[in-house]
Amino acid sequence: MARREPHPDHDLIQGEWTEKALVEKLLEPVEKPAPRPWRVVVAVGAALTLAWLYGLFVTFVRGLGTWGINQPVAWGFDIVHFVWWIGIGHAGTLISAILVLMRQNWRDSLNRVTEAMTLFAVLAAATYPLIHMGRPQLFYWVMPYPTHMALWPQYKSPLSWDVLAIMTYLTISTLFLYLGLIPDLALLRERSRGWRRKLYGWLSLGWTGNAVHWQRYRAVYVLLAGLATPVVISVHSVVSMDFAYGLVPGWHLTVFPPFFAAGAIYSGFAMALTLIIPLRKWYRLEGVITERHLDWMAKVTLASGLGVAYIYLLEIFIAWYAGEPAEWAQQLWRMTGPYAPYYWAMMLINVVLLQTLWFPRFRKNLTWLFIFSILANVGMWLERFVIVIISLSHDFLPGNFQLYYPTWVDWTLFLGTIGFFLFGLSLFIRLFPPIAVAEMVHLFHRLRKH
Amino acid sequence: MLYGLMAYFDSAERLLEALRVLKGRGYRHLEALTPNPVEGIEEVLGGDGRIPWIAFGLGVLGVGLGLFLQIYTTLDYPHNAGGKPLLGWPAFIPVTFELTILTITVGIFLFLLYINGLPLAAHPAVRAKEYVRVLLDEYGVFVYATDPRFDLESTKALLRELGAEVEEVRRD
């Protein structure tokens, strides 16, 4: 008998389990009646989704004049929320892709729900540029297609890069989620009856668990992880170039790509914590989503948040050091102008309160972690508000200085996408296991048997 | 009609051992069915080195597509943007990169389905009454009745000898 030292990650699955018991537990959200809070979330999500549809209806029927955008703040809530949602998506791809490559065992209990989070966040984000076009039925104009006018998209512009970056990101994160689901769908197919059996049967594509198929599957999975990794970094970098290419004071900075990428990971992990802490409690998943998982997530939040905080301070320095009067005026406008409370609230959350995560006492306190995870996304929302709206409201010409007033349509569209996100995610975890079953059983094997 | 025999093993080691013996005895028409990837299976059943090469090929195709798209559209309608060179290649990197990844991702996913013979509407092994066990915690070998070495009694005896629980899979 070889020596049987416990695996260094043995505490990632806590409690006495057998493979069967573990599978039963992980399939509970799909197979057992839903807990009461789930119904509440679905109801709230559905109500807000309906409100969202009404907001869209008003936008399409009466036009963009119902929004608060105007000159000079022509990018308002729509772009703030586009960037906000895209950023939130990043944690899913990060957990599923980068942590696969780094062989981090703790990702196995988190990847499915965060990948689903990515999918719905990117879908929510993608609606904003579409509706901001005003005539969304003409969105295909951004595609390269031969027209009678012989015009093509301008491929030296980051806005046309953005189209491809977002579409690639949506495609790769959907395929990654689906690929990971296939073995679980086969298991669900064999365990269910009626329409569910049909649904899982169709979606599982006839997966049988053939060992040769598994080898190829693993090879493709790791390959896609390797490809998704640079995509995660590239997507928000490209989004940031939409701004950095412009001459607007506060936008024209070479530091934007890493700034946005760090912010995306920070807000994504915060959103993942916001979702996972209640999920773990409602479905009693403490055995597979342990305090160590949450601790790791808090540490990644801290690390990426520190990157964000550093660049906040760097922005102030650059505005002063560049010697460009408009840049410095913009910085003072942010700190002392009518929008100063937004700026300082952002600083308070993302620079000051973030520091609590250095201390294990705060990281282990789930109430604080949950509150902070929500605050962090408020902070990131404020950051995008600062970048998009405050910058535009104060450019080079004093005659151009105007404040931005969002309308009820703007707010409805924002709350509506939150509703859509919650509604979509809760239906997802009702139909598909929120924790990757095959991967957890595999992890269980590696931890206990070797 | 008899489709074949389904043998259930309780560990991956036994599965590998059984596959070695069956291969040694000349069985060819069989499949291993497992709940998760088994290390060392490629030594017994043969590995598949095609995926990285196909991915590389798709990557080259994607780079070509990306560059062609941008160079062609620029030359078809030359447009002076900020006095930059007409074919300023650094500006072409993001789109080329995204299209490369997009081509590989979609292509390799379809290729994976193709080499695995998916989607598959029906598979004889799935008709085994206890089939779900190999998706949960057991390791299965399905020996097709069409295998030249197949003989109901002797194959069953061999599988039992290797430590398996054996089920006859028939069309009902």
Automatic annotation (TrEMBL), chain B:
Superkingdom assignment: Bacteria
Coiled coil stretches, renumbered: none
Alphabetical UniProt keywords: Membrane, Transmembrane, Transmembrane helix
Transmembrane segments: 53-72, 92-115
InterPro entries: ActD
Protein name: DUF3341 domain-containing protein
Species, as recorded: Thermus tengchongensis
